[in-house]
Amino acid sequence: MSGHSHWHRIKHKKGLADAKKSKVFSKMAQLISVAVREGGEDPDANPELKLAIEKAKIVNLPRENIERAIKRGIGELEAGQFQGFLFEAYGPGKIAIIIEGLTDNKNRTLGEIKKTLSEHNGKLVREGSVRWLFERKGVISIIPEAQPPNLKNREELALKVIEAGAEDLYWHEDLLDVYTKIQGLERVRENLERQGIQIESVSLDWVAKEQVLVSEKEREAAEELFEALDENEAVQEIYSNLKD
User: Fold this and answer.
1) Which pTM does this prediction carry?
2) SS3 182
3) What's the CATH code, domain 1-134+208-244?
4) Has domain 135-207 been given CATH number 3.30.70.980?
5) Which of 67, 70, 74, 190 has the highest count of CB atoms within 10 angstroms of its CB?
6) Cβ of 182: how many Cβ atoms within 10 Å?
7) How far apart are CA 29 and CA 78, in angstroms?
8) What are residue 237's DSSP bridge partners?
9) What would the pLDDT profile of 1-39 be if each residue is shown by its tens digit?
10) Closest Cα to residue 84, out of 99, 62, 64, 97?
């Protein structure tokens, strides 16, 4: 199975361009503030906040920005009233897409995303139309080349991942996704770290139950759609059942 966030995959392949960095910082700060507002300011008692802070650190969001975002979440600093959204859509080649994000104006964002989809051979669909094609999973991403010498071998690394309690795993070209049950995410992460495995990121993702193979032309159109959706400041994550 494979359901990795396309935003993460784009970031992993291309790195953070300076022109995008401020937008990504803004997204991460909003994610932290909303997580605090909905679940409290203690990361140990608020898994969503803990993951949001970890994601922010991966993109090098400065500590002071994280602290300000937390203060906005608890009301110490003025902040816009952001709310989460999840939109479902079909894209080029009839691939199923889930778009998650945060917005202070859901109607405006809905209109913007509809427009982006229509410009890239996609369309918004009603709630529940494609979500059943995905499962909510914990996902731990690992870069094999970043591992200690004794763990660079794929078979050895996969064995360690299974021993750590992973439910499933998926090899991308240069990235390994480890899937867990939501409630088992922290336990598996701790087991991996205890074995000396270097972790690239930890998240809660929508994972496709089955992947769809499309033509090269449709794949290119889908990648253009993902890039266009990512340009929307409200969009946090993009998932699809497009086969790697």
Assistant:
1) 0.75
2) helix
3) 3.30.70.980
4) yes
5) 70
6) 12
7) 13
8) 100
9) 455 466 455 444 444 444 456 667 787 888 888 889 888
10) 99
Question: What's the CA gap between 233 and 235, in Å, rounded?
Answer: 6
The domain limits of the chain are 1-134+208-244, 135-207
- Closest to 167 measured CA to CA, from 154, 178, 151: 178
Is the Cβ–Cβ distance between 8 and 16 less than 8 Å? no
Any alpha helices (H) in 40-105, and if so which ranges? 47-58, 63-74
Alpha carbon distance 195, 39 (integer Å): 31
Q: To 5 degrees, how large is the angle CA 123–CA 96–CA 113?
A: 35
Query: Which tokens hold the place of 187?
Result: 């336990």
Q: Are 129 and 88 in contact (CB under 8 A)?
A: yes
What was the pLDDT predicted at 174? Answer: 80
Query: Is the confidence at residue 113, as pLDDT, over 70?
Result: yes
Chain CA centroid to CA 159, Å: 25
How much helix, strand and coil, in percent to the nearest 5, is found in the chain?
50, 20, 30
Q: Match 């499933």 to its residue by tokens.
A: 168
Give me the residues paired with residue 141 across strands: 177, 201
| Residue where the block lists tokens 């964002």 | 109
Distance CA 183, CA 108 (A): 35
* Alpha-carbon gap, residue 176 to 19, rounded angstroms: 28
